[in-house]
Amino acid sequence: MAYVEELPRSLPGVREEPSRICAVTGLKVYAGAQSLTVANAVAAVLALAMGGIFGTLVGLTRAPGIDALQPNAFYVALTGHGVAALILWPVFFEVAAIVFASTILLNARVFSLKLGWSAFFLMVAGGIMLVVSIVTDVRNAVMFTAYPPLVANQIFYLGYLIFAVGVVLALVNFALSIAAARAEKAYAGSLPLLTYGVAAAAILAMLSLASGLVALIPAWLYANDWIGAVEPVIYRTWFWGLGHTLQYVNVVAMVVAWYGILALTLRAGPVNQKFSRIAFVLYIIISLPVLGHHFLVDPSLGNEVKIVGGSIMGFLLGVPSLMHGLAIMGGAEYEIRRQWKTSLFGWLKKLRWDHAGVVALAGSLLIFAFGGWSGTVETTLPLNLVTHNTMNVPGHLHQTVTGGMTLAFMGFAYYLVPILVRRRLWSHKLAVVQAYGYTAGMLIMTNAQIWAGALGVPRRTADIGYGGQAPGGWELPMDIAGVGVIISGAAGGLFILIMVATLLIGKRTEDPNELVPYAVKPA
Amino acid sequence: MSDHADSPAAPPSPGWSRRFPRDERIFLWLIALSVVAMTSFTIAWVAGFGNQNAPDNTFRTTPEEFRAQVGAFTAKYLGDDGKVHVPPGTDAYLMALRYGFSPNLVLKAGHSYQLLVSSIDVLHGFSIVGGHQNLNIEIVPEHVFRVTLKPEDPGTYLIIFNEFCGLRHHEMRGQIIVER
Predict the structure, then answer these.
(1) Fewer CB within 10 Å: C terminus or N terminus of chain B?
(2) Which residue of A has its CA nearest to B41?
(3) In chain B, which residue's Cα lies nearest the Cα of A468?
(4) Same domain flag for B64 and B132
(5) How many Å apart are CA A35 and CA B176, to the nearest integer?
(6) What is the structure's pLDDT at A3?
(7) Residue B11 domain-assigned?
(8) Rounded to whole angstroms, how far apart are CA atoms A478 and A46?
(9) Are residues B39 and B106 in the same domain?
């Protein structure tokens, strides 16, 4: 049912581009925007598959009862896991989201498809360079953080830099696409909440990348012996300007995915958009200084700076997340109670708990709440003395990034991708199993890791035996974490299978109820 | 205006920007209160109410200078057992380098020590575990951490280095022996 309507021509050189009207949302979808979004989403899913395989191997090595990999292979897998699962997967998915939010949600075209595809191919090239440099040479297994004086060869740093340039181009294209949509009056009034949230993520991404270039360009020069040394404390500061701000790009994108799932599966929204929008702005204001919590027990800053930049900013960062949590759950409750007049908790029973969107959203909210609590503990200065570089840290970041963000992205992808490619999700039933499995696996894994961290088990190490000197009690939580790894690894594999099968053999359909089943039980 | 909430996927209906209703204001006050509580708690702890705190006494050095200081310190107090017996009241040095640390320290229980810790190659973690202890700090080359440490219970404490430092990172360990 594709048709083309006359476009306003306020920009010179604009060509008409084929478009269609989406059967679910009624929005105008341009072919260029659609293929660019899908390409980035596919790259994201492939990166997730890679990160997931590395991550499962890492988790199985950390469980002393399994001990899957030899140390060298373990450090390669751990570095690859960090790069693929923490950098490539979220950023590719976020670029898919920024293309989607700046074009399809606004009834608009991509400002420049050339720019969009250049960004995409630079990101792909950078990602390939990073992964290839890690898996082909064990000397490049320096973890994704690559703290100097530890150094990898220059392909590793160039991979980072080329990837970053690609992301910058995608962000520029995003801003220009919104400006063009506004100039062409493709939409009226304020930006949709999803686009607004994505814009907040894009601003944070710009800050993050700027900081990353300051860290990584000297590191690249150092890797080539073109400069003599990189000051380790200064590198750490700028690197975490990249690294932690990027996690808040991820958090904001996760919140956008929450609202996206809410909008698609429940046809609901937050009761008060101003509340949600202010929460997005708070993320931008508070996120950057919070990188201080990476240095709470570093020999660099004084305790006054650490308390303000680490602890207090860390506590404040809970504010926008709690606001969004209220807005999401309140929005779902309001919509269901408005339509079905259910009781205070009756609306929860009205939800379809055999619906992948509901399960992924609820699982993501729950695990992210755990992540908030563990993060608050770690960001408290005196407590960081106990948690720093222990298993507490991977426990926390898998609650936020994996259980929170990845699960939310999975839930959103189950509806976003079918709408875009107009194919029915390959199996809604398996998607439900997947969402439950991932939630359960991540809850088990992360909480066992935090337990291990409290006992002092270190992170990022191939072996915790220490020649038999390790304190007793370390192995049990790590083995339990291994059980969680197996469950979530299997569920992650199921997600990849469902996505690939949907793209290749999903039944073609335009029926909104097949593309996005309604998440409320029929009356 | 319908009572249906605006979709997040579309521009909001006119008049969306209004004063927060009462339930949202109460919620925000509760969050603000919890932030204030956590902040006061942290500041009070660091200001002296807690008996275990993150050290923040640091100074710059060079790897050569630090290595020389550690060498002199080791030579002065080295015992016949190959361990360094630190007299109470003396600064104790601890130098990390791939893949170990030196010297092996012997401290006396119940006495306070200044422990000067640094690395002469790459970043290392410093983690005392065992004996129900779990203390972790970051060791950065060119920066010395001056940690005040008062061992209370005699015993052998495992030191592990929990910042990734190279391919034999997991082999890196040491001990601090606390004598009565």
Answers:
(1) N
(2) A380
(3) B158
(4) yes
(5) 61
(6) 55
(7) no
(8) 28
(9) no
In chain B, what residues touch A306 (CB-CB under 8 Å)?
A: 54, 56
Statement to judge: residues B41 and B101 lie in one domain: no
B5 falls within a domain: no
| Complex ipTM more than 0.90, yes or no | yes
Note whether residue B91 is domain-resident: yes
CA distance A346 to chain B (A): 19
Residues 6+ apart with CB under 8 A from A444: A480, A481, A483, A484, A487
pLDDT at A11 over 80: no
Q: Residues B117-155: pLDDT tens digits?
A: 999 999 999 999 877 778 899 999 999 999 998 998 899
Q: Which residue of B has its CA nearest to A25?
A: B9
- Where in the sequence is the domain holding B73, given as residue range(s)? 57-179
Same domain, B101 and B165: yes
Same domain, B34 and B86: no
Min Cα separation A12/chain B (Å): 26
Shared domain for B48 and B90, answered yes or no, is no
Query: Which of chain A's residues have a Cβ under 8 Å away from the Cβ of B45?
Result: 381-382
* Host H or E run for residue A164: helix A154-183
State the virtual CA torsion across B78, B84, B86, B92 in degrees, nearest 10. Answer: 110
Residue-level pLDDT at B27: 95
Task: Evaluate whether residue B166 is within a structural domain.
Answer: yes
SS3 sequence of A67-103:
CCCCHHHHHHHHHHHHHHHHHHHHHHHHHHHHHHHHC
Average pLDDT of the segment spanning A286-291: 79
If asked whether residues B64 and B78 sit together in one domain, one would say: yes
Which of A187, A318, A463 is closest, CB to CB, to B170?
A463
Residue of B nearest to A306 (CA): B56
Of B3, B134, B138, nearest to A386 by CB-CB distance is B134
Same domain, B92 and B43: no
Residue A4 has a pLDDT of: 56
- Cβ neighbours of B142 in A, within 8 Å: 231-232
Number of domains in chain B: 2
Q: Specify the 3-state DSSP secondary structure of B175.
A: strand
Residue A468: what pLDDT?
A: 86
